[in-house]
């Protein structure tokens, strides 16, 4: 998640730019406007440490013969350290990154220009017709909405409902209202 947030917050112009990360330290001296994703990067580093600790705990389990558990001290130390690191890092990530995240206008813009949104047309006009709309939109540089308005007999209301990305996250199929 931290890695995804870093990428989604990359920019301001040449990155994905779908999220605006909170500014928690001065930005780049050579790229004005850039917000360094230091909090997500810190969480990623903590996760790397925990993976290393897990390897130690695993090895300790392999080396504890019979019921002597001679490696219990190192296993316990690394387990407790991992718990403390993850608790602190999760709190820091929530307070200094997640709480201040905000979506930019880039996400909805990409959805509107994307071809995947044609999926919402299939229950109304059929898979093949929806695929043709998507192909034409791709080849012409127009949006799915523009091509569908021209090539289908869907009302503006049906088209709006079919191409609403939020409705695609809910169970059920869109139906044409006649």
Automatic annotation (TrEMBL):
Q: What keyword terms does UniProt attach to this protein?
A: Lyase
What Pfam families is this protein classified in? Answer: FumaraseC_C (PF10415), Lyase_1 (PF00206)
What is the name of this protein?
Fumarate lyase N-terminal domain-containing protein
Composition-biased stretches, type Basic and acidic residues, lie in 143-161
Per the UniProt entry, the signal peptide is none
PROSITE patterns noted in UniProt: FUMARATE_LYASES (PS00163)
GO BP annotation list: aspartate metabolic process; tricarboxylic acid cycle
Describe the location of the Fumarate lyase N-terminal domain by residue ranges: 1-52
Region Disordered, annotated ranges: 138-178
Which organism is this protein's natural source? Answer: marine sediment metagenome
Please list the GO terms describing molecular function.
aspartate ammonia-lyase activity
| A GO CC term assigned to this protein in UniProt | cytosol
Residue ranges constituting the Fumarase C C-terminal domain according to the UniProt record: 117-170
